[in-house]
Write a structure and sequence with these properties.
There is one protein chain. This protein is 19% helix and 49% strand. By secondary structure, the chain is an alpha+beta fold. It has a five-stranded mixed β-sheet with strand order 5-6-7-9-8, with no helix packed on it. A four-stranded mixed β-sheet has the order 1-2-4-3, with helices on one face. It is elongated and about 60 Å long. The mean pLDDT is 88.
Length: 108
C-alpha cells in the first residue's frame, strides 16, 4: 500500500495505491477516498491517466460523500436522514434519550 498524490481540476487529492498480483487496474472511491488496485506491470503514469480519464465520476463521488456518524461527545449520527447531535453524560445509569435534534447518552 502506498499513498500518492494527484491533481484533479486544480485540487490535490491523495489516492491509495495497492499493488497486487492481478492482470488489470481497478479504480474505486470508498468513503470519499480514491483507491487503485493494480498489477505490478502498470506504470504510475498509466495509473494516473486512468484516474484523470475518470476524474468527473471520481470528483462527483467525492463531493457526494456524506459522513454518516461521529460517535464522540459532541459528534453526530444520522437516523432516517435526520441529523442528531450526541451529548454524553457520566452518570450512574445507562440510558439514551432523544430530545429535539439531540441524543443524550447517560453512562457509567
Amino acid at each position: 500500500m502506498e499513498i500518492r498524490k494527484i491533481e484533479l481540476n486544480g485540487q490535490v487529492f491523495e489516492y491509495q495505491l495497492n499493488i497486487k498480483q492481478i492482470k488489470r487496474c481497478y479504480l474505486k472511491v470508498v468513503a470519499g477516498k480514491i483507491i487503485v488496485n493494480s498489477g505490478p506491470y502498470f506504470s504510475i503514469n498509466e495509473i494516473e491517466q486512468l484516474i484523470k480519464d475518470n476524474q468527473d465520476a471520481v470528483l462527483k463521488q467525492i463531493d457526494n460523500y456524506l459522513i454518516k456518524y461521529d460517535y464522540s461527545n459532541g459528534g453526530f449520527v444520522y437516523i432516517f436522514n435526520q441529523r442528531y447531535q450526541i451529548i454524553s453524560y457520566d452518570l450512574n445509569n445507562r440510558k439514551t434519550v432523544f430530545h429535539d435534534d439531540k441524543i443524550y447518552v447517560y453512562h457509567r
